[in-house]
Amino acid sequence: MTGSPARRSPRGHHLIGVYGLPALAALLFLIFSVTLPDTFPTLDNISAILSNQSIPALLALGATLPIVTGKFDLSIGYGLGLAHVMTLQLIVNGGWPWPLACLVVVVGGAAFGVLNGLVVEFGQIDSFIATLGTGSILYAFTGWITGGARIVPGPGGLPAAFTDLYDSTFLGLPVSASYVLVLAAALWLLLERLPFGRCLYVIGSNVRAAELVGIPTRRYSVYAFAGSGLVVGCAGVLLAAQQQIGNPSVGLEYLLPAFVGALLGSTAIRPGRANALGTLVAVAVLAVGLAGIGQLGAQFWAIPLFNGAALLIAVGLAGYSARRRLRAGAAPREVR
Question: What is the architecture of the domain spanning 5-330?
Answer without folding.
Answer: Orthogonal Bundle (1.10)
